[in-house]
Write a structure and sequence with these properties.
Elements (H helix, E strand, L loop, with lengths): L12 E5 L3 H16 L5 E5 L18 E2 L1 H9 L9 E5 L1 E6 L2 E5 L9 E4 L16 H11 L3 E3 L5 E3 L6 E4 L2 E5 L2 E4 L7 H8 L8 E3 L1 E6 L2 H8 L2 E6 L5 E9 L2 E8 L4 H9 L1 H4 L13 E3 L2 E3 L7 E2 L2 E3 L12 H18 L4 H34 L1 H16 L6 H11 L4 H8 L2 H24 L2
The structure holds flavin-adenine dinucleotide.
Length: 451
């Protein structure tokens, strides 16, 4: 006799480990779809943090930029970000290099369509009132859909026997029909699953440095405007720095090779950044900073019978739109579990293709970031690219392919493969090459003539 297929039956118990975006999105989509199918599910999110605490302990440590595509997608899902969650609306990006600065706008962006948020209730030591954590907001949305929340740290999971069992501090909390791993990569929980889920391996990560600097909202609006500032300054050990305005604060996010607080200080001391800080600004002895890990690859086999991993614990877009990736993977896993089943072959057949799509796209992302790195360190090319972009920004209504590439790469609003293909267009390459040759010739001509 054939064994019965393992599916989520009516009133099945689903345990979601992690109440970051991936966990809440899974809860919301599973609950919605179950209701549409005339089923009820017993869904519980286990989250160890309280997002009401200020500083790193109550925060999922990220730059907090919600891409324009995600803001729009969430609105279509009926999730509108309220004003106490959105700290700032973004309308442009500034790129600062040693050759100068250029502001990039996109004619596609709806007014201030990119949002910046705090993942927790605000930086350490902040007395700012009225800040609502983005993660807590999503948890509340999940609760509105009937998902329960248990603020416990799951320190042991047992996969022996028919169903997974969850433990905290020696107590068994529950046995479940489906275990959803939405625990991210910033803690050590993932390692525990490598031992109990055959074939699962957490994604490779690198360390980043992040800090919140209080400047007052008047200063922030005057100097940083409604723009995200990307600095490509060739500071040793730093790839690039993003500065994100958020009310009274700016978030400084450093990507590089093993960045430390000295890298944050070196950046704040750089002449290109000093222009943006009040005169006599001194880096406080103590300031809110952290060194979260960021995923730079994919998890291996993020599923098993009765288990699926979503968000950072599975696959995420390289350097961009991690919260958007959490949305994509959580939705795909929830749909697979409800529409196809919860056996390994169901997740392999219907969920894994979504992860593979993101992983393949990241290969193009890797090429684009390598090219961007190369361009930013080779002065003649970076100056030429810079000039083309400046020219395009004067005629925004027209075709702006070079600006669009930077915009799409840094906002995360398009998939990397799509961006990469555009760079292969013969006219794109020809125009850039001619600019690289013509710019130095023009410069030599004028300096010769003015002699
Ligand atoms: C420096 C930096 C900047 C970034 N900037 C951006 C950005 O601007 N925009 C963007 O979209 N993405 C950004 N990201 C990526 C983004 O942070 C992640 O992709 C996103 O948070 C993934 O969501 P998640 O729910 O999978 O994991 P997480 O957000 O990490 O959530 C996991 C949750 O699980 C909980 N947890 C873990 N283990 C347990 C356990 N055993 N028991 C109970 N709870 C547990 C944790 O407390 C946490 O709340 C950035 C990342 C870094 C490092």
């Amino acid at each position: 006799m054939r064994e019965a297929k393992v599916t989520l039956h009516n009133s099945a118990r689903v345990a979601i480990i992690g109440g970051g975006p991936a966990g809440s999105f899974f809860g919301i989509f599973a609950s919605k779809l179950a209701r549409d199918m005339g089923k009820t599910l017993d869904l519980t999110i286990y989250e160890r943090k309280s997002f009401f605490t200020h500083g790193a302990t109550g925060c999922n440590m990220c730059a907090g930029v919600i891409s324009e595509s995600l803001v729009q997608t969430l609105a279509l899902e009926g999730i509108n970000l309220p004003s106490n969650v959105v700290q700032w609306g973004i309308e442009s990006y500034f790129f600062h290099t040693l050759d100068g600065s250029v502001e990039i706008k996109s004619s596609r962006l709806r007014q201030r369509g990119i949002a910046t948020v705090f993942r927790g209730s605000g930086p350490a030591g902040s007395l700012a009132k009225g800040i609502q954590s983005f993660d807590e907001f999503l948890i509340e949305k999940a609760m509105e859909h009937g998902v329960c929340v248990n603020r416990s740290f799951i320190d042991k999971v047992c996969m022996e026997g028919d169903k997974p069992k969850l433990y905290s501090a020696g107590n068994m909390l529950q046995e479940c029909d489906l275990l959803v791993g939405a625990f991210g990569i910033k803690g050590s929980t993932g390692k525990m699953y490598e031992d109990i889920i055959t074939g699962y391996k957490v994604p490779p990560t690198i360390k980043t440095a992040q800090s919140e600097i209080e400047l007052g909202s008047d200063w922030v609006v005057r100097r940083f405007g409604h723009s995200i500032h990307i600095f490509l300054l060739r500071i040793p050990g730093i790839k690039f720095v993003s500065v994100i305005p958020k009310g009274d604060y700016i978030t400084v996010s450093v990507l590089g090779k093993d960045p430390k607080s000295d890298h944050i200080r070196a950046f704040l001391d750089h002449t290109a950044m000093k222009k943006f800080l009040p005169s006599g600004f001194k880096i406080p002895e103590k300031f809110c900073h952290c060194f979260p890990k960021i995923s730079v690859g994919a998890a291996r086999k993020p599923f098993a019978t009765r288990a699926a991993f979503v968000g950072d614990a599975s696959s995420t877009r390289l350097y961009k739109d991690g919260i958007g990736s959490a949305y994509i993977t959580a939705k795909a896993a929830a749909h697979t579990a409800l529409l196809h089943g919860i056996e390994e072959k169901d997740f392999r057949g219907y969920y894994f293709p979504t992860c593979k799509f993101l992983n393949r796209d990241n290969l193009f992302g890797r090429l684009l970031f390598a090219a961007n790195n190369f361009i930013s360190i080779v002065s003649p090319i970076s100056r030429s690219y810079f000039n083309i972009v400046q020219g395009e920004q004067k005629n925004l209504g027209e075709n702006t392919p070079y600006s669009d590439i930077l915009w799409d790469m840094f906002t995360g609003s398009r998939f990397y493969k799509d961006i990469f293909m555009r760079t292969l267009h013969p006219s794109f390459i020809m125009y850039l090459l001619s600019a690289i040759v013509i710019y130095p010739l023009k410069k030599t001509f004028y300096s010769f003539r003015n002699r």
